[in-house]
């Protein structure tokens, strides 16, 4: 169930609308352009056919008329117009000889070879599927074959190139929107974290001063002061975490097992005593990793607390450290809890997704962000089984 986490959800809604609008505009544009080009192609086809018909009529007249002087002039004019249109034309004259226009053929070749080339071209033209135009010569029928002009061929491919352009624009738009959404989210995260650290800082330093004053008061129970100091320490840890996430966090080479051991001993006393936590490591002794300790501890805390919640405060947490292929360190955190429904596994890292009454659905989002953006690592749900448990895996690069 998604919580009322209005800020990021507002981003998603706006983004989804923008993407839908973008897609719809692209489809309308592509559809309109296809329709328009299709109309143009049909008109051009019709015109080319009429031209060839006129041409055929002239040839027929030339071949059957005695008045050759007049007709030759007319014939040459039409030939000129057709040359400009680049429609390839082939026809057979009364003696079976092939004639052509707009078919590139070397003039110097012997007639026989030219005829062979034309025969070959004729087959290609026939394959273009234009119905040949019949010329009724009175004593017999002749046919004039024609292909498509360069313009018509280009126009046929034009919609494809347009579709490609629309697809490329759509793809770039999608990347841009996703990038701007991420950038916007980043600004919100970082801004909120910075502001929280800043707001907490002032009352904390004044609290520390007050505790110091109380420490020196003889009639105050020293146990109270110790408890107060612990709470202040906890608040300081939170402030440090927020201020680290609100700026570019500094990474340091840390003994990874030692960091986890020390944090787990701190965490153990703060969770149900019916939860046991085991740590197993097959890493080399003192294996280091580049860490921001405060943020890394936050990740471990979020994953462990989720495990504790899933077990209803009763069960076993196991942390296993081992080497992986390609110079990485794996930290597998397993619980014996209720597991995650298959329909939810893809949602658990989304901000605002929670199945808990009091959950904000932020823990795993934050943990993933810390591991992937600040530690160049990976955080995944490695395995889960209903009523058996789940395993989350953190992968960190081994230092060079
Ligand atoms: N170990 C786990 N076992 C079972 N379900 C889990 C486990 N870890 C996470 N989940 C599921 O993923 C959801 C999201 O976890 P996430 O830590 O992001 O938020 P949350 O724990 O609900 O709230 P928050 O951490 O903000 O207090 C949880 O509500 C739960 O449904
Ligand atoms: Mg959580």
From TrEMBL:
Annotated transmembrane regions: 20-41, 157-177
UniProt-listed PANTHER family? PEROXIDE STRESS-ACTIVATED HISTIDINE KINASE MAK3 (PTHR43065:SF10), SENSOR HISTIDINE KINASE (PTHR43065)
**Recorded catalytic activity of this chain's protein:** ATP + protein L-histidine = ADP + protein N-phospho-L-histidine
Name it: histidine kinase
Entry GO MF terms: ATP binding; phosphorelay sensor kinase activity
| Originating species | Aquirufa antheringensis
Q: Which UniProt keywords apply?
A: ATP-binding, Kinase, Membrane, Nucleotide-binding, Phosphoprotein, Transferase, Transmembrane, Transmembrane helix, Two-component regulatory system
* PROSITE patterns (alphabetical): HIS_KIN
EC number(s) per UniProt? 2.7.13.3
Which chain positions lie within coiled-coil regions?
none
Does Kinase count among this protein's keywords? Answer: yes
InterPro entries, A to Z: HATPase_C_sf (IPR036890), HATPase_dom (IPR003594), His_kinase_dom (IPR005467), HisK_dim/P_dom (IPR003661), Sig_transdc_His_kin-like_C (IPR004358)
Where the record annotates domain Histidine kinase, the positions are 195-400
Enzyme's top EC category: transferase
Q: Which domain of life is it from?
A: Bacteria
Q: Which SUPFAM superfamilies match?
A: ATPase domain of HSP90 chaperone/DNA topoisomerase II/histidine kinase (SSF55874)
> What is any Pfam family matched here?
HATPase_c
């Amino acid at each position: 169930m998604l919580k009322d986490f209005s800020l990021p959800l507002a981003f998603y809604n706006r983004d989804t609308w923008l993407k839908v609008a973008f897609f719809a505009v692209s489809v309308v544009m592509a559809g309109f352009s296809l329709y328009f080009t299709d109309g143009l192609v049909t008109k051009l086809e019709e015109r080319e056919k009429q031209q060839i018909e006129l041409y055929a009529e002239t040839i027929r007249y030339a071949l059957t008329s005695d008045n050759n002087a007049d007709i030759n002039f007319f014939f040459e004019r039409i030939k000129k117009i057709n040359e400009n249109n680049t429609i390839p034309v082939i026809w057979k004259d009364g003696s079976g000889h092939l004639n052509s226009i707009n078919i590139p053929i070397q003039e110097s070749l012997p007639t026989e070879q030219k005829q062979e080339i034309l025969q070959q071209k004729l087959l290609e033209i026939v394959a273009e599927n234009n119905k040949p135009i019949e010329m009724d010569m009175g004593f017999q029928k002749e046919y004039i074959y024609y292909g498509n002009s360069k313009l018509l061929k280009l126009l046929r491919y034009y919609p494809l190139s347009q579709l490609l352009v629309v697809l490329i624009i759509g793809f770039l738009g999608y990347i841009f929107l996703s990038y701007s959404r991420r950038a916007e989210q980043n600004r919100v995260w970082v801004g909120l974290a910075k502001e929280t650290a800043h707001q907490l800082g002032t009352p904390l330093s004044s609290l520390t001063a007050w505790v110091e004053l109380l420490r020196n008061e003889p009639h105050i129970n020293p146990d109270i002061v110790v408890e107060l100091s612990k709470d202040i320490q906890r608040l300081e840890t939170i402030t440090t975490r927020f201020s680290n996430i609100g700026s570019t966090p500094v990474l340091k080479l840390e003994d990874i097992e030692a960091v986890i051991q020390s944090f787990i001993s701190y965490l153990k006393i703060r969770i149900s005593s019916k939860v046991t936590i085991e740590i197993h490591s097959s890493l080399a002794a003192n294996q280091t990793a580049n860490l921001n300790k405060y943020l890394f501890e936050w990740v471990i805390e979020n994953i462990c607390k989720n495990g504790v919640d899933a077990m209803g405060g009763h069960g076993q947490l196991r942390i296993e450290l081992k080497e992986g292929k390609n110079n990485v360190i794996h930290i597998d955190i397993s619980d014996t809890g209720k597991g995650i429904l298959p329909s939810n596994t893809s949602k658990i890292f989304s901000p605002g997704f929670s199945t808990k009454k009091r959950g904000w659905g932020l823990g795993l989002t934050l943990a993933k962000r810390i591991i992937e953006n600040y530690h160049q690592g990976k955080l995944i749900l490695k395995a889960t089984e209903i009523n058996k448990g789940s395993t989350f895996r953190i992968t960190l690069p081994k230092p060079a």
